[in-house]
Amino acid sequence: MNKRSFNQTLAVGLIGGLSTVSSWAQAFPTKPLRVVVPQPPGGGFDVVGRLLADRLGKALGPGAVVENRPGSGTLVGTELVAKAPADGYTLLVGSVSNLALNPGLYPNLPYDSLRDFEPVGLAVAYSYTLVARKDLPFNNLRELIAHARANPKKLTYASGGSGSGQHVLAAALWNLAGVELVHVPYRGAQAAYQDLLGGRVDLFFDLSPTARPQVEAGNLKALVVSGSSRLPFHPEVPTIIETGVVNLDLESWFGLFVPAKTPADVQERLRSELSRIIQSADLVETFRKAGGKPLALTGEQAKALVKRDVDRWSKITRDLGIKAE
Known about the structure:
Blueprint (H helix, E strand, L loop, with lengths): L2 H25 L5 E5 L6 H17 L3 E5 L6 H8 L7 E6 H10 L11 E17 L7 H10 L5 E4 L5 H13 L4 E4 L3 H9 L5 E5 H9 L3 E6 L14 H4 L7 E9 L4 H15 L2 H9 L3 E5 L1 H22 L5
Helix pairs in contact: 2-10, 4-12
């Protein structure tokens, strides 16, 4: 074979190879997606994950299966996706909890939030609400802090697991306010509510949409919210910053992520479909009605927000000495 023939053969082979890759990407997906929720059913991770999985699965054709993989806070499910085949079929419901808080909580985290994952898109952010059992004799954060200061380790606070946003936000608040409360971790929000409603634990910093029904039913009382502004459905409840107790705010964003080595064209296929979904009027309205702040962020905007919170909260948790007990 002369040089010219060799080059022609090589060119045809390369074009054929590229065509195969392109055809494969265009055919994606040929089976249902697997959307991993690193928390039990019923909480914010699960609610957002199911909304996004249902719409994305239908948009792409084969559907999507939601898989709850709780354990060690959010570590088990998140690590599972970090080590899953990078083929676009396994997605993670990512949030402040598992991606921005964990790097500062665990000295030997089995994944790197920025290196091991790529955001497909961020859909919504939620504030947290500090709720108290209804017979607790405090009606605001200042009264609560004063009592806790005078009675160290007498009050208890629940979380959906050590290292969860519910845990870290509360621990940061107590630490900055100079008080000591006893942490009682549960396997998810629903189990925490059972003991809170039963009077076996005093306080719980949960995502505002899931706390809202209990507050509106009069089963619990809301003391503060964690966002930068008050919530439309609880306009009488102040933010932490408004109380003057400490300068602290946190909103938990939620979105879908894939392993970082997922082929770029597959990422783009997922990203373009999810972008359309999270900008749709019906989903935006669903999030707003639940008290969420629609984000609809993809690409560099999503990456920038994730990096900002990874850097910020890693430093806060380390500086305050908060650990995933």
